[in-house]
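Q: Start with the shorter request: fold the first protein.
A: Done. Sequence, then structure:
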Amino acid sequence: MTTKAVITGIGAITPLGLTASESWEKLRLGHSGVSHITSFDASDLDVQIAAEVKGFLPDNYMDLKASRRMSRFAQFCVAAAKEAAQDAKLELTTEEKPRAASAIATGAGGILNTFEEMGNYVTKGPSRVSPFFIPLMAPNMGACQVAMTLGLRGPALASTAACASGLYSFIEAQQLISSGMCDVVLAGGGEAALHPVAIAALSNMRALSRNNNDPEGASRPFDQERDGFVFGEGAVVFVIESEERALRRNTKIYAELLGGGLSCDANHITAPLDDGSGAAQAIESALQIGGVEATDISYISAHGTGTALNDVSETKAIKLALGEHANKVAVSATKSMVGHLLGGAGALGVFSCVKAIEEGIIPPTINLHSPAEDCDLDYVPLKARDREVNYAITNGFGFGGQNGCVLLGKYH
């Protein structure tokens, strides 16, 4: 008998707030977390805007020694994980810890430390390179640091699949629980990769919005005036438990994690398949694995980057996967408010779905004033919408053609 996986705790560090409740409140109200870059001097760059996490102080979440041995992305993940554990009132006995896992994804890991230590090597010499550089930059350290912080002695998994990374964590979590291998998984994703070199590279690729004069209006998924995505950072982490354990603890259950689907376009290093068939395959797989009909879906938290190719391809994918029902589904893009969290984007999409299921409120796609010609679904423009949501999916598509879709449902 397959064990159900349920979500019992949420934690978030985002450009909109340093808690899940603050982040959700601003998402619901359609606030933007995009502004001019403050973490470094961007005056020489063509792109001078980003969705930064503001006011984050590691010392509020961990001791100084621990924080110095973590990259910024791992600090975000630990902070979000601690909030999620507190929200779930999670306490693990010695006997339970070997059956508790972490699955924390990222796209770039500790890339900021790579840039920093390369600078130290070039300007100060080999002796000035940090002895902690390797564990600082390693992508698995978000998962490992969460495990060390909370005493999780089961698997520590760290999938890296570009902008689809965050969704892999939830598929892994559901599989760990449904197979009976684990009873608890801390699952999510995080990213902190804002650096002049990264901004310059993506700008030269023409992937980023250059709307420096209007930061809050720069991220425009599905709009005819869109000109690229906005770089973001942050982390979202959930406590996912077996149904049996959650019921035994008599804890709040936000939603059921039904699984997900994965695919690869096998087409191009950056461009999606024109017809959306690769992404549609992931959506169809998620529905099949979760045992849910396309007509049951009420809400889709879109990948919705605001790039010319992605928005059209995703629209086509939704139509391919859902058929005529695609026109009845509410679709919204949280990246319009928080930018693109890369490896954390999928976890933010799950967050949007879980809160929509819990509260019956679908967050908006802000800055959507004139939908593009080939973007003709219901993207919940400008203002949140009240709607009962029994089943929701969230999409994530990464460079290299990696596609992910996670399915969530109201717990019954």
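Q: Next, the second protein, separately.
A: Sequence, then structure:
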Amino acid sequence: MARVLLIAGDFVEDYEIMVPFQALQAMGHTVDAVCPEKREGDSVRTAIHDFEGDQTYSEKPGHNFSLNASFAEVAMVDYDALVVPGGRAPEYLRLDERVLEMVRHFFEHDKPVAAICHGAQLLASAISLEGFRVSAYPACAPEVTLAGGNFTSLEVDQAITSGKLVTAPAWPAHPAWLARFAELL
């Protein structure tokens, strides 16, 4: 079974951290959830994004998610794959050079990466997406394109695999997104 790193931050999307964290463990994988400047046992606040017919998603307070590993102690060589959930966290996590180095490691070593929704913001800040077909929340399309990626518009419950990268527009895609990621693992 794989050892998976999940990079999070405050106001990560609630379902996009909870569901993959629990589902991947249920599949038998080890999942370490970390956040810059936080240690094992600390928590991140989550936000619930929903699609209620407005021009964009709505946002409501979520839960406190407990981290099970310490960011400062992570060694990339110990991990087989990476998960990048969405929400507002990727917007500011992409400013942390250590986070960007972590993301680069997985691509440079051809390890599976799963990113969902706004997680594409972090990918686009860390690497060139040239040669990758990438789905994300539609508002992230300009960043994917500017990073050289081929933004792929999908139904909200669909996912796409491009090489070792699995992406999806938002949490309704969890069944497709996680199934594709599991195939790579």
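Q: Describe the second briefly.
A: The mean pLDDT is 97. DSSP finds six helices and eleven strands in the chain.
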